[in-house]
Please model this.
Amino acid sequence: MYDLIRLGTSCNQKCDFCFNRWEPINKNLKTKEAKRLIRIYSEKMKYLSFTGGEPTIRSDLSKLINYAVQVGIKEVGIQTNAVRLANKNYTKLLVNKGLSYAFVSLHSHKENISDGLTGTPKSFKKTIRGIKNLLDLGVRVRISHVICLQNYKDLTAFVKFVQNISPKIEIEFSTVLPSPDIRKNKKMIVKLSEMEPYFYGALNYCKKNNITFIISSCSVPLCYTQSFEEYSTEYNTMVNFFNSQEKAIDPMDNLPENLKVYEEARGIESWKRNKIKSEKCMGCSLNSFCNGIWINYAQTFGIDELKPVKSTSMAYHF
Model:
């Protein structure tokens, strides 16, 4: 897992579903401030990723990557739309300074849909070229794919497209994070129940073809990851915590004391204040591992889509 330093909110794209667009003004760290954070992180963390906004539009990114390596960060990554990385010389510069991982946003394999979602005409081809440049230079690439109304029926086709670029590419699935005022991006949010068959279709295809993938904890409750819980970052974060406590996990135990420690350690309490469960969730075998759905999603679409999982194939004792 890569710990993140958010360098700022400025970006060269205009994705309607990006939570950075909720910021009233652009806020960007100065080089000195970024280096201070890097030093702090390097005392305990060995995997670090720079995010934004878009980090590649900063003139000091190569220097920050190099500085992170110098102070002992083992692997340095970026979260990016890869548009600037279409310039191979620029990509080489970042790699030569120590870049080894890239988390690249790509939300459709169809150029018109991709450019529409990013609000940036002709950016799709640049992103694809950037991905290929990263791969050519030996950088590990994971695609960030946000599932929305405009792309959810194309999930399996998208996976096939990505794998045609390279079977080495990993994929992370997430859904649109509802904005504080959900009316601003309601037109992009697909209901979980409508997404479900296409989502499971893509996950089954990935598993059958040995494609590396994960499911982001941002918006997908665990009852919509059945048989794929082990690929959920939400589930794995919890399991890793309990493993570190050397405690066997009973899925039907609410574990209030350990959960409190876990939530404080991961900063999850603030997330839980913005999420909600139904009464049915209390009887779910995954209840102790799941935070539910966003309150503003529930206010718009209700909570009837949540469905308790009575049993699971996952092993809870490690």
About this structure: The first strand starts at residue 3 and ends at 6. Confidence is low (pLDDT under 50) at residues 245-268.
